[in-house]
Amino acid sequence: MEAAVAEGWLHTYGYLDNAHVAALYERALFVVLPSIYEGFGLPAVEAMSAGVPLVASDIPVLREIAGEAALYVAPDDIEAWAATC
Fold first, then answer.
1. What is residue 10's predicted lDDT score, i.e. its pLDDT?
2. d(CA 11, CA 55)
Protein backbone atom coordinates (compact mmCIF):
# COMPACT_ATOMS: atom_id res chain seq x y z
CA MET A 1 0.00 0.00 0.00
CA GLU A 2 2.83 2.39 0.81
CA ALA A 3 4.21 1.95 -2.73
CA ALA A 4 0.81 2.72 -4.27
CA VAL A 5 0.53 5.88 -2.19
CA ALA A 6 4.11 6.89 -3.06
CA GLU A 7 3.41 6.35 -6.77
CA GLY A 8 0.34 8.58 -6.51
CA TRP A 9 -2.37 6.16 -7.65
CA LEU A 10 -3.76 5.42 -4.20
CA HIS A 11 -4.89 8.10 -1.77
CA THR A 12 -5.76 7.56 1.88
CA TYR A 13 -7.76 9.95 4.03
CA GLY A 14 -8.64 10.40 7.66
CA TYR A 15 -12.01 11.79 8.71
CA LEU A 16 -13.96 13.52 5.95
CA ASP A 17 -17.27 15.35 6.23
CA ASN A 18 -20.18 14.32 3.99
CA ALA A 19 -19.46 16.95 1.34
CA HIS A 20 -15.89 15.73 0.89
CA VAL A 21 -17.01 12.09 0.76
CA ALA A 22 -19.56 12.95 -1.94
CA ALA A 23 -16.90 14.81 -3.94
CA LEU A 24 -14.60 11.79 -3.82
CA TYR A 25 -17.35 9.45 -5.04
CA GLU A 26 -18.04 11.85 -7.92
CA ARG A 27 -14.40 11.61 -9.03
CA ALA A 28 -13.97 7.86 -8.44
CA LEU A 29 -13.54 5.49 -11.37
CA PHE A 30 -14.65 2.63 -9.12
CA VAL A 31 -14.85 1.72 -5.42
CA VAL A 32 -13.01 -1.25 -3.95
CA LEU A 33 -14.44 -2.84 -0.80
CA PRO A 34 -12.07 -5.71 0.12
CA SER A 35 -13.63 -6.49 3.49
CA ILE A 36 -13.21 -9.88 5.12
CA TYR A 37 -15.88 -9.03 7.70
CA GLU A 38 -18.44 -6.27 7.32
CA GLY A 39 -21.23 -5.24 9.66
CA PHE A 40 -23.33 -3.47 7.06
CA GLY A 41 -21.26 -2.16 4.16
CA LEU A 42 -22.18 1.52 4.00
CA PRO A 43 -19.47 2.23 1.37
CA ALA A 44 -21.28 -0.19 -0.95
CA VAL A 45 -24.52 1.76 -0.55
CA GLU A 46 -22.70 5.06 -1.03
CA ALA A 47 -20.97 3.82 -4.19
CA MET A 48 -24.22 2.56 -5.69
CA SER A 49 -26.00 5.79 -4.74
CA ALA A 50 -23.28 7.78 -6.51
CA GLY A 51 -23.45 5.52 -9.57
CA VAL A 52 -19.85 4.38 -9.13
CA PRO A 53 -18.95 0.78 -10.09
CA LEU A 54 -18.30 -1.41 -7.05
CA VAL A 55 -15.74 -4.20 -6.71
CA ALA A 56 -16.51 -5.99 -3.45
CA SER A 57 -15.54 -9.01 -1.41
CA ASP A 58 -17.70 -12.02 -2.05
CA ILE A 59 -19.15 -12.16 1.46
CA PRO A 60 -22.84 -12.60 2.35
CA VAL A 61 -23.52 -9.12 3.70
CA LEU A 62 -22.13 -7.38 0.61
CA ARG A 63 -24.05 -9.72 -1.72
CA GLU A 64 -27.21 -8.92 0.27
CA ILE A 65 -26.60 -5.17 0.01
CA ALA A 66 -25.29 -4.85 -3.55
CA GLY A 67 -26.93 -7.83 -5.26
CA GLU A 68 -26.08 -7.82 -8.96
CA ALA A 69 -24.78 -4.23 -8.83
CA ALA A 70 -21.23 -5.25 -7.87
CA LEU A 71 -18.38 -7.30 -9.24
CA TYR A 72 -17.38 -9.82 -6.56
CA VAL A 73 -13.94 -11.18 -5.72
CA ALA A 74 -13.00 -13.81 -3.14
CA PRO A 75 -11.73 -11.84 -0.13
CA ASP A 76 -8.60 -13.96 0.28
CA ASP A 77 -7.59 -14.18 -3.40
CA ILE A 78 -4.93 -11.50 -3.81
CA GLU A 79 -4.23 -12.43 -7.43
CA ALA A 80 -7.92 -12.07 -8.33
CA TRP A 81 -8.05 -8.64 -6.68
CA ALA A 82 -4.98 -7.53 -8.61
CA ALA A 83 -6.40 -8.84 -11.89
CA THR A 84 -9.81 -7.26 -11.29
CA CYS A 85 -8.70 -3.86 -10.07
1. 83
2. 17
Report helix, strand or coil for 18.
helix
Contact between residue 20 and residue 60 where contact means Cβ atoms under 8 Å apart? no
Domains of the chain by residue range: 2-84
- Cα 47–78–36 angle (5° rounding)? 55
Virtual CA dihedral for 49, 55, 57, 60, nearest 10 degrees? Answer: 40
Alpha-carbon distance of 74 to 78, in angstroms, equals: 8
Query: What kind of fold does domain 2-84 have according to CATH?
Result: Rossmann fold (3.40.50)
**21-73 pLDDT, tens per residue?**
999 999 999 999 999 999 999 999 999 999 999 999 999 999 999 999 999 99
Taking Cα atoms as reference points, which of 22, 59, 15, 68 lies closest to residue 40?
A: 59
